[in-house]
Amino acid sequence: MGAKRAVEGRTQPYDVLLAAYQKKSIGRPNAKDQSSHTNQANEEPFVDSDEEVENIMQAFKQSRPTPLAEKRYFFVKRRRQCFRLRDILVDAITPK
Predict the structure, then answer these.
(1) Can you give the pLDDT at residue 81?
(2) E strands along 5-86, which residues?
(3) What pLDDT score does 6 carry?
(4) How many CA atoms within 13 Å lie on the side-chain side of 57?
(5) What is the Cα gyration radius of the chain?
(6) What is the DSSP letter of 11?
(7) 1 closest CA partner among 88, 55, 13, 77
(8) How do residues 17-75 score in pLDDT, each as one tens digit?
(9) What pTM was estimated for this model as a whole?
(10) Using CA atoms, how far apart are residues 34 and 29, in angstroms rounded to an integer?
(11) Per-residue exposure over 45-84, b if at least 16 CB sit within 10 Å of its own CB, e if not
(12) Within 10 Å of residue 18's Cβ, how many Cβ atoms?
């Protein structure tokens, strides 16, 4: 606390600034603001449980999920067979 009071270049002493800060309650929400937020949170529209179930089932039916990534398949054996066949055909048609 002594280090805070010893800072040079203040416009007013530390105790005066601290008292003004606490009086304004800077950084703290006011009680009035909290009560208005809680009232708004409690005023959710009433939804019937059957209607909610119907909405969720409809959302499931309409959703078309797609994977974020797909595994790429490399057909190594098939590619090797194609290259062997290509080499055989190239050797067959090239003059010797």
Answers:
(1) 94
(2) none
(3) 73
(4) 6
(5) 38
(6) S
(7) 13
(8) 888 878 876 555 555 555 555 555 566 677 678 888 899 999 999 998 888 888 888 88
(9) 0.27
(10) 7
(11) eeeeeeeeeeeeeeeeeeeeeeeeeeeeeeeeeeeeeeee
(12) 14
Is the separation of the CB atoms in 14 and 5 below 8 Å? yes
pLDDT at 39: 54
Closest listed residue to residue 14, CA positions, set 4, 24, 29 = 4
**What burial class does residue 2 get, using C-beta atoms within 10 Å of its C-beta: 0-12 exposed, 13-18 middle, 19+ buried?**
exposed
Locus of tokens 């601290």: 18
| Higher local confidence (pLDDT), 39 or 81 | 81
Return the structure tokens found at 67: 């994977």
Number of helices (H) and strands (E) in the chain: give both, helices first.
5, 0
Compute the residue count for the chain: 96
The answer to whether the beta carbons of residues 44 and 37 sit under 8 Å apart is: no
